[in-house]
Amino acid sequence: MDDTAFADDEIVAFTLNGIGKHNRISTAYDTGTGTIKDFRGQGIASLLLQKAVSMMKTDFIKILNIPTDDISLHHFLNNRNIPIIRAGA
Question: How far apart are alpha carbons 26 and 52 in whole angstroms?
Fold first, then answer.
């Protein structure tokens, strides 16, 4: 479920995810998502996350475990009916 966005052969955004179990429930773990400063605010990370969410649903992932309290990320995922937990929860 990893993905990368490029511009002129340069990486401008990425998402890295692992899959495992949390309390016996299939869970995706967001281990990293980032966008180069000059490319932020263009929806690139949102597109990468949307693709990851689609893949999660195909793979019957029930929860996304994220290592942040980022309100916009929580809102993005909640609007796509992906239950989330924060790392360490």
Answer: 15
